[in-house]
Amino acid sequence: MSDGIKKPDPINREAVQKFREQKKKILRPEYYIKGILNHDRTILSQAITLVESSLPTHQKIASTIIEACIPHSAKSLRIGITGVPGVGKSTFIEALGKKVTGWGRKLAVLAIDPSSERSGGSIMGDKTRMENLSQDPDAFIRPSPSGGSLGGVARKTRETIILCEAAGFDTIFVETVGVGQSETAVHSMVDFFLLLMLAGAGDELQGIKRGIMEMADAIVITKADGANVQKADSAMIEFTNALHLFPPAESGWIPEALTCSAREGKGLEAIWQTILSYTDRTRENGFFQLNRDRQAIYRMYDFIDETLKSDFYIHPGIKQKLEKYEKKVLKRELSAYQAAQKILSGYRKK
Amino acid sequence: MSDGIKKPDPINREAVQKFREQKKKILRPEYYIKGILNHDRTILSQAITLVESSLPTHQKIASTIIEACIPHSAKSLRIGITGVPGVGKSTFIEALGKKVTGWGRKLAVLAIDPSSERSGGSIMGDKTRMENLSQDPDAFIRPSPSGGSLGGVARKTRETIILCEAAGFDTIFVETVGVGQSETAVHSMVDFFLLLMLAGAGDELQGIKRGIMEMADAIVITKADGANVQKADSAMIEFTNALHLFPPAESGWIPEALTCSAREGKGLEAIWQTILSYTDRTRENGFFQLNRDRQAIYRMYDFIDETLKSDFYIHPGIKQKLEKYEKKVLKRELSAYQAAQKILSGYRKK
């Protein structure tokens, strides 16, 4: 983490002393905890940087911060928003976000993008997007760092949600690109999952991963303006029919298809109304809290499994063994199960 | 495994000697390997029982048998068939199975049913079902044993497929009930995935787990006979439209919706034709083999992960720790990640 403190001229004793004190203060968890609970956005940002850092010292402080924040968390509405590049995600989030803050809510927008190393389609780094929203005092926009494992990124986003909630944000948008595995991760950390789609199925759908559609609580057809209105309306009807063919979700909610024009500001209130109907209904039937409890417990087990796996895969010699036995399986010299046993044999004895 | 050999009167020396020899023979892998490669169905059955056994001595022999069979495997067409209880799975499999053996193919029907402990809806134990097919000399029907973990059942079914293929079966049906997690497992061991559905969406869909529809290479509307024909036809059109809205599968195949009446023997040829079109197309574009290779490698990694997990969860004291920290997560005293770390701390040091 760069903590933004300039290293002083070593000859200037007074400056060196001040530098050391500042460094010390920066590494005290109380500074961050107090700042977050006082809704200080600069300190919130710094704390998220600590959460995202892989340095053990930073991780230790981050852990203390999270522990202090967690009793103040979980009071927000968490909404996952996904869609392929080109669907108009940024424009949509900016338009809906401005509405939401206009209604008096405090909004944090977090972005997960495991594919951000690739050039096109990245949702990060693009500092000019969501210009209006980023200047809104009631909105806080934070992309997840690129690189690292998906599991790691997802974990950090989950803990970032905790910090944002403790810092007074009552609405969280979690944004993904809809082409990778991150949607399952996002689905397991939000209350409502929104899928953005373009009208005129076919080619535009190429990017969406199979299985995502069945996770959606609502599908929004974007860019329903100008010459596109009719196409968007028929897409909406098609998707409504298709969504009714899906098996009912445990929430009791039947996913809805809607249209919207972020450019013209149309359809945004209806979308928000849909989200509120969902939360009303699921709070009433108990699914809302049940889902959150399950997500937390599921996460705990998931972290355990991830750790067991990574401990194994970084173990010396395992990589070579995997390569060797993959070949044997492909040549049909061993069954997958037998190969797995041989790979594990040395490791388990320890 | 009960090997069917009666324990003799210990005073009768001759009988005791014969008993010992029989026991010894039974435990020699060569006996099974030779039998399977000679297409002996009784010995195939006995070998599958060894594969399913959890006794270490049986597992050891089973492993040798599988190793010998695996070079003779992988030459069949593997078809997964799923649908909720009441959809008419047995009748469908029997009707299609009879057609398939009539065309000169050798068919093995394997059933996975992790929920078989429950009474209604079990696909096992019901010995009267598929009466015609079970008397067909070219068909072999084998349910997976009830109980045990899903992972275990799935592994055994995979290895049972190997044995059946080595025993000359060129068509494998793997049947599941469509209400649990077993479909993902089955999907990862077959070439073609068939979902059976009833006409008149709504209530009948209740049982199908979300996400299964997007796995299907074809949806078959069953019981398209009598007063039901029109309803089945409109369901077929609805599903065809819905399937087109899904993102295209990597196989390049667009899933089809079809109707069928197993009772009247209608639609079965068209279904088989669809399966053959799929295999032709995917063999041509290379996806068929690619998918099998991936399934095998995926399986290897999956077995490793399963073993790492089960080693951990049976470790002394872990169960108590999990219960303790689940509570802390639900009370929001710790984040899921922090709880996971505390649970792992003792285990990882070892």
Characterise the protein shown here.
With 350 residues, chain A is of the alpha/beta class. Chain A has three domains: 13-69, Single alpha-helices involved in coiled-coils or other helix-helix interfaces (Up-down Bundle), CATH 1.20.5; 73-298, P-loop containing nucleotide triphosphate hydrolases (Rossmann fold), CATH 3.40.50; 315-349, no CATH class. Helix content of chain A is 51%, strand content 10%. Chain A contains 13 helices and seven strands. Chain A has helices at residues 13-26, 29-37, 41-52, 56-69, 89-102, 131-134, 150-166, 182-187, 229-245, 268-284, 287-313, 318-330, 336-349, and strands spanning 77-82, 107-111, 139-143, 171-176, 192-197, 218-221, 256-259. A seven-stranded parallel β-sheet of chain A has the order 3-2-4-1-5-6-7, sandwiched between helices. In chain A, α6 (131-134) links the parallel β2 (107-111) and β3 (139-143). In chain A, α2 runs parallel beside α4 and α12 (318-330) runs antiparallel to α13. The longest helix of chain A has 27 residues, at 287-313. The model of chain A is unreliable at 115-127 (pLDDT under 50). Chains A and B meet through α4, α7, α9, α11 and α12 of A and α4, α7, α9, α11 and α12 of B.
